[in-house]
Amino acid sequence: MLAEHVLALFGMSATPAGAPGWQTALFAGILALTLGLLAAEKIHKTILVLLSAGACLFLGDALGYFPHAAGHHLPVYIRMIEWEVIGIVVGATVFVEIAARSGVFTWISIKVLKASGGDPFRLLILFSILTAVFSAFLDNITAMIIIGSLTIVSCRKLELDAKPFLITEGIMTNVGGLLTLISSIPNIIIGKTAGISYLTFLTVSVPYTVFAIAASMFVAKRVFGKSVGPLRDAETKAHNRALVLAFDEWETVENRRFFHTSGAAVIAVILLFAFHSQIPILRDFGIEIVALGAAVIMMLLHAKDVEHDLSNVQWSLVFFFLGLFTIIGVMEHAGVLLLIGTLLDSLTAQTGSIGLMWLTAIFSSVTDNIPLAAMLGKIFGPTPEAAAAIPRVQWWAVVFGANLGGNITPIGSASTVVAVTIMKKHGLKISFLEFVKIGAIFAAVQLVLASGYLWVLKGILT
Amino acid sequence: MRERAIEQFESIFERASIPVLDILEPSLRRLSVVLTGDQLDKTLVRTARYLRGRFESEVQVHWSDAGGHEAATAAGRSDGFTLETSPFESAAALIGQIALTHSQMVLYAAPENEDKRIAEADALVKGVAAPILLIRRPIAEPPAVFRAILHSLSGNFQQTENFSYSFGLVEDGGALRLLHTVDPGEVAAVREAMKLTTDISEEDEQDVLDELTRRGERYLKAVVAASREQPYEVNYRLGVGDIVEAARKELASGSYGLLVVGHHEEGHSRITAADYQLMHLVREIPVLAL
Asked: What is the ipTM of this complex?
């Protein structure tokens, strides 16, 4: 009864998917419970999602959602899974893990540190840009771990407070996460659903990222004040310069041949990602083939420890995807996604894509942005035709909201969690509220900027 | 998992964080020259004259009854060197004289005769706090001695003071090479002396050597970095094996003018067995025993 009341509120008695209202409400309840438990972080997210997926499958089957063909057939949940997304995640993780082992990224980090001359403000700007760029090609966690570790070591040497740098870097990983189609999982999901190419993604995201970095630097200077201010005294400048020049980037490289081949491979893979749609044969496959192919070639070139390389794949994330896509698949059958879509429509009727972005950001700040992006992807683009019919700017609203929302709270994204972990490890105390006070300023500026950018995009893309 | 990755990257960057050394050039305002009537007396005087020109040093001449007085008097007359009022009669007396002058470097013609060497040269190196420049061959052009210097590093080489003399003496536009080796024999000896297990695997042994090599290299890089603004070049060579063999090979392959050995600890000269060997094996070029 209650379910039917809720549905009636939104003008629905039963879903167009064919499931009766009470069934939609039942599955919506399961989804709400799953998302609530995910946000509470009391149970490991992979276990939780797999349990929920199992429950959804059994219930869905009992309610006759899935047709059973005779003879050989693929299980219904196999078809629900976005294998392209999993392919990109697995391929890119293996590739990046091997490349990172070569010292390519640590080498670049030290070069950037040296370029700062030990000046706090230049260090903040350069490390922020580096964090954003690394986040574009590495996963955000790895990018934060590399830059965060160097920040701690260099700040200790330069006798600087590392906290403002780490907070800014944590936030910049999410800005950098906007840069490319493979920078973050929401980008991969939305890009794949909306059919956005790597190059198109880059063309749209780069201008915003540049503005967002510049604005964030302005905010950082205002928020952190003197602790990130430029040096004035010539003697201190010379002293700090000597300290950073003493870093030896080659100390992080164990094998120069490995380093050079990895560096070349990173450049080649970026180019392949960018131009794969123009390369014969390769264009017939998805972008995941580039990621998986790059991983296989790297393993072949550095076949010393393939078992170890493969163990670095975030298998918990892969299983999380399996469960998540299954849940979303069942939710689609149960009409829950349509219900959420209708809800979203009513909530953003006045504000359009800008409202959608803010809503997505608020949800992302308290819960995992992956299920959110996956759900929104499926809601707006259940089929390629439906996805193509959606205004482009709406997809970008989801991308901006899902990435930038993580900056509001320390638990909003994995990279801010890493930043806080590094701070705690070194006795740099920061409370949840203290982070929110700072993070919210950054996120607000970035989201306001993104709102303006979406408004401009709307004019260009339509 | 994340904590482990953070620790791992922090240690990588700590390793890359080379220490910043401040290597001060030594004061060579007071030199001592030991003249014994040897054919090398002229070379000693010529070298002292050159060093006085570079470092504006006061030169004190110590002379022996055996024939050093004539050369000392000549040097005093023509170069304005200060003569000791009395000759030295033994190595101990010479050490006493040098101690009183507070010399910062002693120029000394090392005797070829082994008995004399043990009685005098070794006693001098051990007894005098200041470095001894041992000369065994005539030197026509003293600046050439300081254009290419090989500094052999053994024992406790991580003493910033060790590099002061090498840095100070190398000519502008010249080159200083630091040579250090990690000796597997020494590693085994330390293990035995510490009564550690002797049956460690080859892999473990290699790990120890790698770690020692890495530490050595890190320090050598810091020394090289300290010379960044200097008008001369400093580089290093790091190997595995016996330092004496490595130094001899290096000397044979390059046109060095001076070999520097030994190190200072708490104001005293320390000569390791390898330094001692090199000090006496190398005769073609002067050896500075720190």
From this structure: 0.78
